[in-house]
Design a protein that fits this description.
heterodimer; A: about 230 residues; mainly alpha; two-stranded antiparallel ribbon; 9 helices; 5 strands; B: about 1200 residues; mainly beta; 5-stranded mixed beta sheet; 5-stranded antiparallel beta sheet; 10 helices; 86 strands; nucleic acid binding (chain B)
Chain lengths: ~230, ~1200
């Protein structure tokens, strides 16, 4: 038995072709410009209102739109001063290839084409590699709104970022193990933040902790417990 | 990943049992089916022990089993109805010890289907026809006959189909030699199906229908059909022709009814009930199984109720008209799946759950005070007779067959510090449940232990005459003396045996026909013992010394002579072990006496040698003399504790095919013993082992017994195949009865069905939850008893008060053990549970918490909380007022106990109410994850209850298990396979990031690594699924937060899917899986236990060559040795999912039971010899297990 296509169903063939094109397009979307969601859909990470798009094709279409392009300017306008020169909207590997300038450009090109033709699934993996990027988290740590403030309250050492805008790296802060060594004070502060957060306390933005209404607490538990800092 | 499946212990539960003379001799045998296994048992009428002759795995589901015998024949055949869509007739071949398929007729699709026959089988009592029926519509009749060469023939099928008809039971009616007749319990649902008002459905009646096979016209007619008043559950054939009145007994709720053709009126008798039963009196009573006993002069039936009470049923007749049914309480035994009354006076009871029993029928219950109930006694409609259950009176227990079925949970750990892990198995049901500890080894029964005056060196047994069956003397040698014991009714010291008692003995034996020789040291000499001389064993009684001498190149350490083959004067070979690490085989043939034939180099100095003949099947020659033709094996025990087993060519004396096994730290001493009529070798190192051949497979099993120093075979009237052995200063007589068993077991009784247990890691104590449906708690039971006693007194009249009070007191004091008489059935929706803390080594209960009536414990965990430090807590998930069908539940609780007193006591802390059944609990990062119905929650320990900290509501149906690794949580859903969840601490969220694509009804799961999980489902499949390497577990919830309504549906699974690594159909529901090593120094394997009591392992292949080899073995066996019941092996293993990446070792190991020429063919295809193939098979087994 073989799985060869039978018949001359052109519409189906076109659908497949289109899907294939979409898959190939996916490899040109940088990994930090979109988020993959639990249900397999995509959210654009560039636009501040985070539009959710059902398929890659739609995401690609969205990325061609006016709104997106204006957000893109805003996004990179903001991002570049943070990240310095290294940042480029292109994915990391593409960037490297361009930089190294291979001696046999035709060979490289064909290799790239074969590679993308041999992809079986959409070559897209949104966020899991972000934390491994060497240059990513360091300076962007401070732009995270809530933990930063909390840390500030605790240690009074880190200056506050003037504009706590939305920053995708904020979420990574807790779980990603930072490659740069963390100072013990900050680690403790982080620990405390995570412990309180996971036991149902939410920072209200003014440095106080309020109870999450979906979480249960002991009846005499009014204040978040003081964790040993020493 | 490629895996190899091996069964360590086959299923032990019995689904059907039939009896007959299957080997064609007068011996009564039993054939039992254990789901997918067919087994032939033979109860020894002298000792009462049940021996297993043959076990065959059929790779199909056996759905019905019947024995039949052609008219005038002496041998019974076995008819099997299975899921193969074929009817199969088997014959047992005693000479080859195998079942032979005589006929296999295909009639339908494979699988257990509604209208494909196979579910019911009925044979004509005269052996002329067999009917095979489906649950619905189809029935086929095959005519059986014999051809000119007296071989069994089978006709093409005759149809007796009737559409829209359900079948409940089918039996063959005994009509003598008239046309064969079959009786069916049927129900026609056509009208009910077409009537939308439901009125017809309410009025539908079951019918008793007779089908007649017209032998003249060669077709089947539906002869007669009659609606029944009560709903029947099964039929019993009444002997007919010259033996009885013919007809059938219909067993139905509360009544048993006799029916027959013609003028015979129906005779109906109520089923008696227990007096003062705690059961719901409104509940009907049914018979669940029966056995018929028929002799030339009389017949009776034994029928068992669902409470376990057996009644003896007899029929009173008046000129072939039945006038009366008589019932008499016989005895109470555990509820059976099948019973067999053997002609030898035994009753075999194949229990529904737990151990099976063989009873001797000591009395027929004819002349005792037990009241007899009769259909002729006038009774109001709805009224019944009452009887008083009592301990056994007519039956005497003679043997018990261990059965683990059902195994509900198992954990493997070395809690007893024995370096080999033990299996802790929770098994059984209701009051017959137990916790059993399984250890690899053969169970040893101690027949006698006696202390001796000093530490003996050696022990022998000798017969007085060569023809004697039993040994006459035990000779025990000490450093400076010899003790002679004579064997009779008792074993006692004698002085007149002729043996010299004042010196130590080096050896002794029977010489010639009736001479005994004692070898002792007369004068110590310093002669080097490196020459051999030969002494022929003449029948004349004269001892001639051969003049030949043979100088060996090095000192002789040990020697062994083979037994004299039947019909010959002398044995052909002598094996000699030399100090230069060699063993030589020397000819004893007079023509080339003492000529060396072959030699084998050894890795160490030999300590002991033993030539035995093993592996042969029992043969019977024309003269009826029994003997076995096997292979000769030379066993070599080395000083470094290794045992070698080498095949010794019976003609040339060549040595080949050596197998090695490390036995222990001490030099290996070997002794020849007899086991089940065959030779076996007892090997003694720091542990004792028995090497024997059992059902054409070699077993080398350690004895679960203390270290022994010297042994000898022992045969007496009481113990025909024993061992006499010495250990320090004691003499022990031992018997090994459970040959073939891999595990020996110690059982500790429990109160209710054990559901789960956990091990407290510090004290190694077990915390077991036991839960029973349809049961009373102790408190409710006592309360109900009290209430009934009060009612008894109240109901009595003024003058009977005193008597009633006495009776009430007797009732209150009465205490029938529930393990035999069963626990009272409380009704639907009534639950009873306990939580038990048990020491796994002594088996004593350290603490017991009784839960309230209708609280059912379903999950348990032992854990620590990060906010409370070092204390251990036990959490028990309990359902309240759970009704199974239609399902409803009032809620649930999580009981929290603190483990105090070094893990021995449970201190109640608090009780947390939850909305649904908390069916799974797992410790997770210093807190606990609890599956409450379909909600996955994180709880933390609070002061007054557990505090819910986080929740995920997106699991499909019902969380049946939780596994955790790192931040990942793998949830098994009862119906939707696995769901991977990630806990995000900084957002305090549980987010689903992956799931499986198949709908698996997961029963149990085990993590293999970070990405891989093994699971089993309720249909008997095992699978391994793995997340692909690019899986991203940091997916975000929809950041907009405005998820559309249509997006919240249950069908919206995760976007990332797991891959299937392996699929395999075991054929029995698997309830526990664990990745562990079973032998010290062995590799890891995946161990599973099944509901029917089987234990198996899946082991990974380490090399591609191995995998390739076994794949070919499997392939060849599939074609050369197809399964016995006609089910295709590949399709059986792919029952629900196509089998993937697993090779069936059970099939491969059937290589050993194939006929030699087929073995040769298969091994030639593989470019090997048969011994090489079987060595490979043995190697892979011993590398991982036993």
């Amino acid at each position: 038995m073989s799985f060869k296509r039978e018949g001359d169903d052109w519409s189906q063939l076109n659908v497949l072709k289109k899907r294939r094109v979409g898959d190939l397009l996916a490899s040109y979307i940088p990994e930090d410009e979109a988020l993959m969601l639990r249900d397999g859909r995509f959210a654009c990470a560039i636009c501040p209102h985070r539009p959710v798009l059902d398929t890659l094709a739609m995401l690609t279409a969205h990325r061609g739109g006016k709104k997106h392009l204006s957000s893109l300017q805003l996004f990179y306008g903001k991002k570049q001063p943070e990240k310095g020169m290294g940042q480029n909207p292109r994915p990391q590997n593409d960037l490297k290839k361009e930089e190294t300038k291979p001696e046999a450009p035709l060979l490289t090109q064909t290799r790239l084409i074969t590679q993308s033709a041999l992809h079986r699934a959409p070559h897209y993996n949104s966020c899991c590699r972000r934390k491994h990027r060497p240059e990513a988290p360091g300076p962007s740590l401070s732009c995270s709104p809530l933990p930063a403030r909390d840390i500030e309250l605790q240690s009074e050492k880190i200056s506050r970022e003037p504009e706590p805008g939305p920053c995708p790296q904020a979420k990574e802060l807790a779980t990603a193990s930072d490659p740069a060594p963390m100072s013990p004070t900050r680690r403790r502060a982080l620990d405390r933040y995570l412990t309180l957060r996971s036991s149902g306390w939410i920072p209200d933005g003014d440095g106080r902790w309020i109870k999450d209404e979906n979480v249960e607490f002991d009846s005499d538990e009014e204040e978040p417990p003081d964790l040993p800092l020493g | 990943m490629f895996l190899y499946n091996l069964t360590l212990q086959r299923a032990t539960g019995i689904s059907f049992a039939i009896h007959g003379n299957f080997s064609g001799t007068k011996q009564q045998e039993i054939v039992v089916s254990r789901g997918k296994i067919l087994e032939l048992l033979r109860p020894d009428p002298n000792t009462g022990k049940v021996h297993t002759l043959l076990t065959v795995e059929v790779f199909g589901v056996i759905r019905s089993l019947m024995a039949f015998r052609l008219t005038g024949g002496t041998k019974d055949y076995i008819v099997v109805g299975s899921d193969s869509g074929r009817i199969v007739i088997l014959e047992y071949q005693p000479s080859k010890n195998m079942f032979e398929k005589i006929h296999q007729e295909t009639f339908g699709k494979s699988g257990c289907r509604r209208i494909v026959p196979g579910q019911f089988l009925a044979v004509d009592p005269k052996g002329r026809a067999v009917m095979i029926s489906a649950i619905e519509k189809q029935k086929l009749v095959y005519i059986l006959n014999r051809d000119a060469a007296a071989r069994l023939t089978i006709s093409s099928p005759l149809e007796a189909h009737k559409a829209n008809t359900l079948v409940y039971h089918v039996v063959g009616v005994d009509v003598g030699f008239e046309n064969p007749m079959f009786a069916c319990l049927e129900m026609d649902y056509e009208e009910a199906d077409n009537d939308p008002t439901g009125e017809a459905a309410a009025n539908t009646q079951q019918t008793l229908t007779f089908y007649e096979l017209d032998l003249g016209l060669n077709h089947v007619v539906r002869k007669y059909s009659e609606p029944l008043e009560e709903h029947g559950n099964f039929l019993i054939t009444v002997p007919g022709g010259s033996d009885g009145p013919s007809g059938v007994l219909i067993c139905s709720e509360n009544y048993i009814t006799y029916k027959n053709f013609g003028d015979q009126p129906d005779i109906r008798c109520p089923i008696p009930r227990r007096r003062n039963d705690l059961d719901d009196p409104e509940r009907g009573m049914i018979f669940v199984c029966s056995a018929t006993h028929k002799t030339k002069s009389m017949f009776f039936f034994l029928a068992q109720t669902e409470q376990g009470d057996i009644f003896k049923i007899t029929l009173e007749t008046d000129e072939d008209m039945v006038t009366e049914i008589r019932l008499k309480y016989f005895d109470t035994v555990p509820v059976a799946a099948a019973m067999c009354v053997l002609k030898t006076g035994f009753l075999f009871v194949a229990s529904e759950f737990g151990n099976h029993y063989l009873y001797q029928i000591a009395h027929l219950g004819d002349d005792d005070e037990e009241p007899e109930f009769s259909s002729a006694m006038p009774l109001e409609e709805g009224d019944t007779f009452f009887f008083q259950p009592r301990p056994l009176k007519n039956l005497v227990l003679v043997d018990e067959l261990d059965s683990l079925s059902p195994i509900l949970f198992c954990q493997i750990a070395d809690l007893a510090n024995e370096d080999t892990p033990q299996l802790y198995v929770a098994c059984g049901r209701g009051p017959r449940s137990s916790l059993r500890v399984l250890r690899h080894g053969l169970e040893v029964s101690e027949m006698a232990v006696s202390e001796l005056p000093g530490n003996p060196n050696a022990v022998w047994t000798v017969r007085r005459h060569i023809e004697d069956e039993f040994d006459a003397y035990i000779i025990v040698s000490f450093v400076n003396a010899t003790l002679v014991l004579s064997i009779g009714e008792t074993v006692e010291e004698v002085t007149d045996s002729g043996f010299l008692g004042t010196t130590p003995t080096l050896s002794c034996s029977l010489l010639g026909d009736d001479a005994l020789v004692q070898v002792r040291i007369l004068r110590a000499c310093r002669k080097k013992p490196n020459s051999l001389s030969s002494v022929p064993g003449p029948r004349s009684g004269q001892l001639n010394e051969y003049t030949e001498r043979k100088e060996m190149s090095a000192d002789v350490v040990c020697m062994s002579l083979a037994n004299v083959p039947p019909g010959e004067q002398r044995s052909r070979f002598l094996a000699v072990g030399l100090v230069d690490n060699t063993v030589r085989i020397i000819s004893l043939d007079p023509s080339d006496c003492l000529q060396p034939l072959s030699m084998q180099a050894l890795p160490a100095q030999p300590e002991s040698l033993c030539i035995v003949e093993m592996g042969g099947t029992e043969k019977q020659d024309e003269l009826g003399e029994r003997g076995s033709i096997g292979f000769l094996y030379l066993n070599i025990g080395l000083q470094n504790g290794v045992l070698l087993r080498t095949v010794l060519d019976p003609v040339t004396g060549d040595l080949s095919d050596t197998r090695t096994r490390y036995l222990g730290s001490r030099p290996v001493k070997l002794f020849r013993v007899r086991m089940q009529g065959q030779e076996a070798v007892l090997a003694m190192s720091s542990r004792s082992w028995l090497s024997y051949s059992y059902q054409s497979r070699f077993h080398l099993t350690p004895l679960s017994y203390e270290t022994l120093e010297f042994a000898s075979g022992f045969a007496s009237e009481q113990c025909p195949e024993g061992i006499v052995a010495i250990s320090t200063n004691t003499l022990r007589i031992l018997a090994l009865e459970k040959l073939g068993a891999v595990f020996n077991q110690v059982a500790f009784p429990l109160q209710y069905t054990p559901r789960k247990f956990v091990i407290h890691p510090e004290s190694n104590n077990l915390i077991i939850i036991e839960t029973d449906h349809n049961a009373y708690t102790e408190a409710t039971k006592a309360q109900r008893k009290q209430q009934m006693a009060e009612e008894m007194v109240e109901a009595a009249g003024e003058d009977e008060r005193e008597l009633a009070a006495e009776m009430a007191a007797a009732f209150l004091n009465e205490n029938l053990p529930e393990s035999i008489f069963g626990a009272p059935k409380a009704g639907n929706g009534q639950w009873a549970s306990v939580i038990r803390v048990m020491n796994p080594i002594q088996g004593n209960t350290l603490d017991l918490v009784q839960l309230e009536q209708n609280e059912a414990a379903f999950s348990v965990a032992v854990c620590r909380f990060s906010n409370t430090g070092e204390d251990w807590y036990v959490l028990v998930g309990v359902a309240k007022d759970l009704i199974l069908n239609p399902r409803s539940v009032a809620g649930g609780f999580v009981y929290t106990y603190k483990l105090v007193n070094n893990g021995e006591k449970l201190e109640f802390l608090h009780k947390t109410p939850v909305e649904e059944v908390p069916a799974a609990i797992a410790p997770f990062q210093g807190r606990v994850l609890i599956g409450v119905g379909k909600l996955l929650r994180v709880y933390d320990l609070g002061k007054k209850k557990l505090l819910r900290k986080c929740e995920n509501k997106h699991i499909a149906n019902y969380i049946s298990g939780i596994q955790t690794i790192g931040h990942r949580v793998i949830v098994s859903d009862v119906q939707e396979s696995f769901i991977w969840v990630r806990y995000k601490r900084n957002e305090n969220q549980l987010i689903i990031f992956a799931d499986d694509t198949y709908p698996r009804w997961v029963t149990t799961a085990s993590l293999l690594d970070y990405d891989t999980v093994a699971g089993a489902d309720k249909f008997g499949n095992i699978c391994v699924v793995r997340l692909p390497p690019n899986t991203n577990d940091e997916v975000d919830e929809d950041p907009t937060g405005n998820k559309a309504l249509w997006d919240r549906g249950l069908l919206n699974g995760a976007s990332q899917k797991a891959e299937v690594i392996m699929n395999y159909h075991v054929g029995e529901t698997v309830l526990s899986l664990q990745k562990t090593t079973l032998i010290p120094g062995g590799s890891e394997s995946l161990v599973y236990t099944t509901l029917s009591g089987g234990i198996g392992i899946l082991v990974p292949f380490t090399s591609h060559e191995d995998h390739d080899f076994f794949q070919h073995v499997e392939m060849h066996l599939r074609s050369e040795h197809p399964p016995l019941c006609g089910r295709d092996h590949l399709s059986f293993r792919s029952y629900y999912f196509p089998v993937k990446n697993v090779i069936d070792g059970d099939l491969c190991e059937q290589f050993n039971s194939m006929e030699p020429n087929k073995q040769k063919n298969v091994s030639e295809e593989l470019d090997r010899t048969p011994p090489e193939v079987s060595k490979k098979l043995e190697d892979i087994r011993t590398r991982y297990a036993f």
